[in-house]
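Newbie here. two chains, one complex. Structure please?
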Amino acid sequence: MDKTYNPHAIEQQWYQHWEANSYFTPSGTGKPYSIVIPPPNVTGSLHMGHAFQDTIMDTLIRLKRMQQHDTLWQVGTDHAGIATQMLVERKVQAEEGLTRHDLGREKFLDKVWEWKEESGGNITRQLRRLGASVDWDRERFTMDDGFYEAVQEAFIRLYEDGLIYRGKRLVNWDPKLHTAISDLEVVSEDEAGHLWHMRYPLADGATTANGDNFIVVATTRPETMLGDAAVAVHPEDERYQHLVGKFVELPLVGRRIPVIADDYVDQEFGTGCVKITPAHDFNDYAMGQRHALAMINVLDQDAAILATPEVYNTDGMPVTEHNEAIPAAYQGLDRYQARDAIVADLQQAGQLEKIEDHTLKAPRGDRSGLVIEPLLTDQWFVSTKPLAEPAIAAVEDGRIEFVPKQWQNTYFSWMRDIQDWCISRQLWWGHRIPAWYDDAGQFYVGRSEAEVRAKHQLGDINLRQDDDVLDTWFSSGLWTFGTMGWPDMTEALKRYHPTDVLVTGFDIIFFWVARMIMMTMHLMKHEDGSAQVPFKTIYVTGLIRDENGDKMSKSKGNVLDPLDLIDGISLDDLLAKRTGNMMQPQLAKKIDKQTRKHFPEGMAAYGTDALRFTLCSLASTGRDIKFDLGRIEGNRNFCNKIWNAASYVLMNCEDQDCGQHGGEVELTLADKWIVSRLQRTQQKVLSALDSYRFDHAAEALYSFIWNEYCAWYLELSKPVLWDENASAAQLRGTRRTLVQVLESALRLAHPLMPYITEEIWQKLKPLVGQTGDSIMLQAYPEFAADKVDEQAESDLNWVRDVIEGVRNIRGEMGISPAKPIPLLFSKGKPSDQNKLQANSQFLIKLAKLESVTWLEAGEEAPLSATALVGEMEVLVPMAGLIDKDAELARLQKELAKLTGEIKRFNGKLGNAKFVDNAPAEVVDKERAKLAEAEAAAATLQQQVAKIEAI
RNA sequence: AGGACUAUAGCUCAGUUGGUUAGAGCGCUACCUUGACAUGGUAGAGGUCGGCAGUUCGAAUCUGCCUAGUCCUACCA
């Protein structure tokens, strides 16, 4: 075994070994347990969120595998429509100066596939570095042939079930990407804007209550007036009631539009008069539907002004009404240029009453960052309400459970108010919609052109497939069963579906989780016809944030790359990574400065195990995680501790009799104690993992291994192993305990830290009589109640108390740890004497004692520094060692503490209400504590008196 | 506007059904190259558990209000 712990040296080889031996493949026996990985973008790279979630999934999978379940961890990647297409577009633009339109659909798609092949392996390589025990043999991609079939089938079935429809609707249009996007892909933030108050002249000589021949509307988007179809007021608004049914004449355009009444209008806001533009605003659209207003679209796909409006009735059918040409001055102008022009013209005409500052929520496309434009287009939609109902029920009745529970409220509130889902995208990279159009615009849905022709007896008329592709989330909604071979009812589906747990972030509960539930429950049925859920538990993780609690993002330059934490990175490389190739180069200086401040020497190589253990230890529920380098450093040290402990064990046990071949065995108190403590640790770790408390599991492992096994047990083993008079049975007992407990602890820790546990286990296995090839296939330790030894635990606490009492005196009195000191025991009970006799070797070694002396009752003790163990006094003679004042000060400090306690206990017990009402058990406990504190105080008081007397 | 979450040691976080002297890691102080480990050891210091009120014999824990912060959803023409 190498002298120092070097994660790099051990990690890669074991992963290769596991993978080469197909240890990640489901065993096919035992109870099935399955997890699907949330598919990362195929061209993406692993970030801390992935590392976190994948660590948790791997921990669960390794645990279940060791518990002899038939585990499947399904792996794969997502084609990530918009993100990938944009990336390749940028790349082609940068490298060849071409747009995708220059290339054409087919050639451009070739480029995307090329890029996918080139960079697609990146994320899977990174997954391997993390130790993720996914089944690579079943790796899938959302656009591989089989998955394509699943997507097409899902579309067709939903269509045939009446849950997919096509229609002209107002959708969120991205004027840069030239595609519709779903509500979820629009992010709204407060932005500074204006509220323009515009005069709309009343037609036919009508006047307002105060005699004006115009009304004033307030708007944040003056340019949309070109598409106004009405002005709305509140039905109870006394200012305008009499105008309802009359008309106004639209300035600059001249269109006569009605004044209508609708209680959507807020009388308090603006002027109480709202211009209604059904083709360019979602609320206006709804109002247009209610009042049968024409939808007058005045914008093209670039959000520039059309020459002639496109007008539709409420059914989306084109009509000729209101299709007079738009004034030439505005034709072809971009929406913002048009705004300026219209405002200027209104001003000139004296029809602009005022301009107010106004903050508004600007809806922006989450990919392009541009303000999206509500635009009337033909799109495909999923009717979500019928799908949502069973999906809600499944969570209500517990077939699907959120961990932590609170997330179900988020889910419910969204699902109960769900809107239809626009699934068509005007992109090229994605699943082509399986619909064909004839020249008349009639469409036919089917698996292929041939199928469509045959089914609808179309002969050889012209047919053209829909150009659009499906929203990426449509295909990822099928992920749990699409990866297992659906629409065929494969053996894998029968065995591993529904999956057991989904591990994901709250940010995609709507995007993905909810839709997965809806799609799966509609498409996947049990044999009895009831709906299958995609997974039984949803473990929702928090977000990993930087050391300041800020979200990690490339533009902020605060991203931590998990691979850098594993391998380490120099400051220069880190700076280059964070400030190179930036979208906003002006931020580089600031990022440079911050990075130098936080990582003056770059980052050390902490190794995968330290990273994984840290992520687990931070995984408490219901909160985000500020990633603190201190934690991973501490856990790297923990790995080092394990390494060195193993080194000690091997040094003392290799080529020795460790009882693996039988033979008489005698166990010391320390042996019995550590075995007992191991049981309790196993119990804690198991119950923590069962309840998804990875932090508790990590804590239990850490404190057992470091604070009990290393700090105490290894030290307690030394007096036995180094005792020349120790019997073979004693040596065998201690060696056996050393190796067995370490071996169990390694298995216990393996799901969290796969590499170091494997490396050490390989060295240890012959010493415990194991022959398995890998720790990952060994049985997970189980709690054995019969190995819990209360007596050993309490006896060992006595030993620790004595040792710690002496160490305290040493520490506080400044006695060199190198100096052996004599120790006297006074006022002890017979049980104390027994313990002393049985364990003096431990005391002498660990407290560095010169001698131990038992004083019988009445025997005079020399003047000493005192520590108390129960009622027994542990005495370090002062002669030549201890200064009188220092000991007095030490005693006074102890006494002060005791006095405080006594006062509190007395207060409590003096309160009749407490004594009368509290359970007798609690009262007795308080009494006992009081008695103990009083006795201790009395003893120390006597000591003080004695010392003061000299 | 509605909702969720968070507030505990200098920092990052635990604290299960109300009953311990409120814990851990990092950091800090002093001492120590003792035959696994200085990525270490020993001994310490450090908290009126965000504030106020209430329930209770008893509150970090339950209830209400308030303050501060984070986030989500809807939406203001």
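Moderator note: Chain A has 29 helices and 31 strands. The mean pLDDT of chain A is 90. Thread marked as resolved.
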